[in-house]
Design a protein that fits this description.
The structure is a single chain. This protein has about 130 residues and is of the alpha/beta class. It has a single domain, classed as Response regulator (Rossmann fold). About 40% of the residues lie in helices and about 20% in strands. The chain has a 5-stranded parallel β-sheet with strand order 2-1-3-4-5, with helices on both faces. Helix 2 runs parallel beside helix 3.
């Protein structure tokens, strides 16, 4: 019998409470959450672990999340990896900037965890099936 490893989601978030809640929610759904607390850490982490998806905060301390997204899109390993941006700025120009940088979707914070799972399922339905 072949055992499929759990999906891996890279959570790029500098707020401890937020990344902790996201990782707990992911774990409940059988998903491994790995955390990077800034953009540089995220870029280094994808050299070690290629995630199935990335949850990316736009307001990071060292570099803007849109810049992190652009750099992730330049990396062949993460070129097609779904990137779901989180932002506390719901202005249309902020959402547009994230999408233009290469994010697949944008979720405005604060948000309920079911919205995160819904977006993961939309981006990778085969990897993040609906659980009964």
């Amino acid at each position: 019998m072949t055992v499929t490893p759990p999906p891996v989601v890279l959570v790029v978030e500098d707020d401890t409470d937020t990344w902790d809640l996201l990782c707990v929610g992911l774990k409940i759904h059988g998903i491994e959450g790995v955390v990077a607390t800034n953009g540089q850490e995220a870029l280094e982490m994808v050299r070690q672990v290629v995630p199935d998806a990335i949850l990316l905060d736009i307001g990071l301390p060292d570099m803007d999340g849109t810049e992190v997204c652009r750099l992730l899109r330049e990396n062949p390993a993460t070129l097609l990896t779904p990137i779901i941006a989180f932002t506390g700025h719901a202005m249309p120009r902020d959402v547009q900037a994230a999408l233009e940088a290469g994010c697949n979707a944008v979720i405005v914070k604060p948000t309920a965890f079911p919205a995160v799972m819904e977006e993961l399922r939309r981006q990778l339905p085969a990897r993040f099936p609906v659980q009964e």
